[in-house]
């Protein structure tokens, strides 16, 4: 058996070593004929060409729909469109080589269901497919990020009240308060940093707060910003009264936000279970089809 496999693989080994030897001899001939300066220039041209091609691929990926999904999801696991496409096509290539190419080389049988499974995996992970697993997961991740953003807006509201209640002097400095509580935020930390930078620039507090509210994009953030604009001009009691007047709105928002986060977490956690159920049903259908085919073949005989 081992000898039979060896003789089947032998022609491919011969071709492989022949190509390696041809490339090596070509390299040696080129090294002997070309000067060191020419070789260096050639290496630089090849390096520049590879760099340009890589930049083109990265730019093409950055303009794709995959990049838009990744950007909305805040680049989960550090993945962008280019990295995801590399992983995606490498995975599909691995499946093709492992389940189609290698069996063909060793004289094995290529099963139709294996090919169908690879096609299903390709379609399920394809970003351009609106019903793919990729789009489903991205939507859930985006919903989860939005829920966390809303939770941090509520935390901003709560921290503002706590800071005002703990103040001993009667003069409010909103910029200092925001600068002190900035380390407590994660999802909106970028928007927070832009807010503080714009606040201390020529744009001024009102423009900075308007940009912050627009960047967050929720009704709660807009309402909170409308109060924050006037904090420096009123006393602590008035500021606290204005903030606490929005308590009911934020409580309702937090309840809804909690429900959304629970739903997203449940949906993401149920993916392995749903996948298992799908595979079980698919396996059951395959068994039925095989049995029917077998019975029909026997009846024809």
From TrEMBL:
This is Uncharacterized protein. The keyword Transmembrane applies. Keywords: Membrane, Transmembrane, Transmembrane helix. The chain crosses the membrane at residues 12-33, 86-106, 112-138, 278-296. It comes from the Bacteria.
């Amino acid at each position: 058996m081992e000898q039979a496999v060896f003789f089947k693989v032998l022609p491919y080994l011969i071709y492989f070593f022949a190509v390696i030897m041809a490339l090596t001899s070509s390299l040696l001939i080129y090294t002997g004929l070309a000067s060191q300066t020419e070789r260096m220039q050639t290496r630089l041209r090849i390096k520049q060409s590879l760099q340009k091609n890589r930049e083109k691929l990265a730019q093409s990926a950055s303009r794709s729909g995959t990049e838009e999904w990744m950007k909305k999801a805040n680049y989960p696991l550090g993945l962008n469109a280019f990295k995801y496409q590399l992983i995606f096509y490498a995975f599909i290539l691995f499946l093709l080589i492992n389940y189609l190419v290698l069996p063909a080389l060793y004289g094995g049988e290529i099963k139709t269901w294996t090919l169908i499974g690879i096609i299903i995996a390709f379609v399920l992970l394809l970003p351009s497919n609106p019903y793919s697993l990729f789009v489903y997961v991205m939507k859930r991740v985006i919903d989860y990020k939005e829920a966390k953003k809303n939770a941090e807006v509520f935390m901003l509201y709560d921290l503002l009240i706590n800071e005002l209640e703990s103040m001993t002097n009667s003069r409010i400095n909103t910029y200092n308060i925001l600068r002190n509580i900035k380390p407590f935020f994660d999802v909106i930390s970028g928007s927070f940093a832009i807010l503080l930078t714009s606040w201390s620039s020529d744009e001024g507090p009102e423009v900075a707060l308007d940009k912050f509210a627009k960047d967050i994009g929720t009704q709660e953030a807009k309402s909170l910003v409308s109060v924050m604009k006037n904090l420096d001009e009123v006393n602590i009691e008035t500021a606290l009264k204005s903030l606490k007047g929005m308590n009911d709105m934020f409580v309702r928002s937090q309840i809804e936000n909690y429900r959304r986060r629970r739903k997203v977490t449940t949906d993401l956690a149920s993916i392995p279970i749903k996948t298992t159920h799908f595979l079980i049903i698919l396996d059951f259908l395959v068994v039925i089809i095989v049995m029917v085919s077998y019975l029909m073949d026997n009846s024809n005989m």
